[in-house]
Design brief:
This protein is mainly α. 76% of the residues lie in helices and 0% in strands. The chain contains two helices and no strands. Helix 1 packs antiparallel against helix 2. The chain is rod-shaped, with a radius of gyration of 22 Å.
Length: 86
């Protein structure tokens, strides 16, 4: 018995499909991280202002906002992991 070996076109199509799937997962993760960054920024800045308009931002508010910026940077860094779909 001989086994059918995949030809070059099948291998290329499979590689393209795998790269497409990976890219979609990466884009979903980046979108999730960016959404979390927006939520953390909202919790750090908007919520205290709504509850008390005369509030002075302390270190904890700035730390949460810095965490939000870090999440945003992670989201941008993850996008660089996208593969070429050739």
């Amino acid at each position: 018995m001989t086994e059918a070996t995949p030809n070059a076109a099948e291998i290329a199509a499979r590689r393209k499909h795998v790269a497409k799937r990976l890219n979609e997962h990466i884009k979903l993760f980046a979108a999730y991280v960016n959404a979390m960054a927006i939520a953390v920024a909202g919790a750090a800045i908007i919520v205290p202002l709504v509850s008390n308009p005369n509030v002075a931002f302390g270190r904890s508010h700035l730390a949460w906002f810095a965490g939000s910026l870090a999440l945003q940077c992670i989201g941008h860094a993850v996008i660089r992991l996208l593969r070429r779909e050739e």
